[in-house]
Design a protein that fits this description.
Shape: globular
GO molecular function, one term: hydrolase activity, acting on carbon-nitrogen (but not peptide) bonds
Number of strands: 11
CATH architecture of the largest domain: Alpha-Beta Barrel
Function: Is involved in generating a small heat-stable compound (Nod), an acylated oligomer of N-acetylglucosamine, that stimulates mitosis in various plant protoplasts.
Subcellular location: Secreted
Low-confidence stretches: 1-6, 338-342
Strand content: 5-15%
Largest sheet: 7 strands, mixed
Number of helices: 15
Radius of gyration: 20 Å
Number of domains: 2
Distance between the termini: 35 Å
CATH superfamily of the largest domain: Glycoside hydrolase/deacetylase
Structural class: alpha/beta
Order of helices and strands: HHEEEHEHEHEHHHHHHEHEHEEEHH
Helix content: 40-55%
Family: Belongs to the polysaccharide deacetylase family.
CATH topology of the largest domain: TIM Barrel
Mean pLDDT: 89
Keywords: Signal
Length: 342
């Protein structure tokens, strides 16, 4: 969630490759490999104090991307894509679309665009917030940092980190504080969240629901519209390094409680903060399988190939900083590399 946006130079080069038709040539290359791209989105919104710009994309750009996918790619449900990968029966230019966290804009903005183009997607939701059991702490913290006074923000930085950097942006402060929570477990994590709650007194309590997360009714609407609901753990914890029993409970509780309200299986998982190698360890992968999931996705870049480990699937992240050219380039990254080597 905190990956730096690509440089302007890299973005310009990628856009040039797209505009010159080089990436289209890569898309037309024959390939003996059975591969697919799983795209990873978070928020589809023009603005918002509940999410970092590094995980957001405007509705206009999202619609442009979906229109492009509908014209040039075969977009499968995650179930169908993984089934075809196992059977080695995947057409060229195969894609699956996924979303992480469970933001309300997924249902209100992204879903109508997907429906307009007849494209399926999987929505990995953090179960406690969407079931009304408390705030989504990541969005809560981003809003707290974005809306706090300078004095409040300084006090919070000193209390949590022991110092304050006058050159740090609010996004920098959010990243620092979020990393503190991500790297905590058990009582330490709970105590740090409680401390944040006291340091930002203008914010609602962390045990109250958020106005920017989906509800059960939204999830049911998505399912009725042909979308898939997956799990993103119960409380958006980094699983690696946790005690195995705690990991298992995070996974099982999320899966079972979502299945209960949806009256449908929840077969797929996405690991929180899965872009960091250390955040997805073999213990978490094994426990995801034991919890009854069919697959689990990371946030690491790459394409999915036949025979790939189903509990360590790469996904290509998409945000506004990519632009349209970067998005198209990312879809064909693997084959473009083959073109350059040929």
């Amino acid at each position: 969630m905190k990956a730096a946006p690509p440089s302007r130079l890299a973005q310009a080069v990628k856009s040039a490759f797209v505009n010159l038709g080089v990436v289209a040539c890569a898309r037309a290359l024959p390939s003996s490999q059975c591969t697919a791209t799983i795209l990873r989105y978070h928020s589809v919104s023009a603005s918002g104090d509940y999410r970092s710009p590094t995980i957001a994309i405007s509705p206009e750009l999202f619609e442009t991307q979906m229109s492009f996918l509908a014209r040039n790619y075969v977009v499968f449900t995650l179930d169908e894509l993984l089934k075809r990968l196992e059977e080695r029966d995947l057409p060229r230019n195969s894609v699956a679309i996924t979303f992480d966290d469970g933001y309300l804009d997924n249902a209100k903005v992204a879903f109508p665009i997907l429906a307009r183009y007849g494209l399926p997607a999987t929505f990995f939701v953090t179960s406690d917030p969407v079931l009304g059991k408390g705030a989504f702490w990541v969005g809560w913290l981003y809003r707290a940092v974005a809306t706090a006074s300078d004095a409040t923000l300084r006090r919070a930085c000193v209390a949590m980190t022991g110092s304050t950097d006058p050159q740090a942006t609010r996004d920098d402060v959010f990243a620092t504080l979020a990393t503190l929570i991500d790297n905590s477990d058990g009582d330490l994590r709970d105590n740090r969240l409680w401390e944040l709650e006291t340091l930002f007194p203008a914010m609602p309590p962390l045990d109250s629901p958020c106005d920017f997360m989906m509800s059960v009714a939204d999830l049911r609407d998505l399912r009725a519209g042909g979308m898939t609901i997956g799990a993103h753990t119960a409380t958006h914890r980094v699983l690696a390094g946790m005690e195995a029993g705690g990991v298992y409970q995070e996974l099982v509780r999320s899966k079972s409680e979502l299945e209960s309200v949806l009256d449908a299986p929840v077969d797929h998982l996405a690991y929180p903060n899965g872009h960091v190698e250390e955040n997805v360890d073999p213990v978490a992968c094994n426990l995801a399988e034991q919890a009854g999931f069919r697959s689990a996705g990371t946030s690491r870049r790459g394409t999915v190939s036949a025979g790939a480990p189903l509990f360590n699937l790469p996904r290509q992240g998409v945000n506004a900083a990519l632009g349209f050219g970067g998005f198209v380039f990312k879809l064909e990254e693997a084959r473009f590399s083959l073109l350059l080597r040929s």
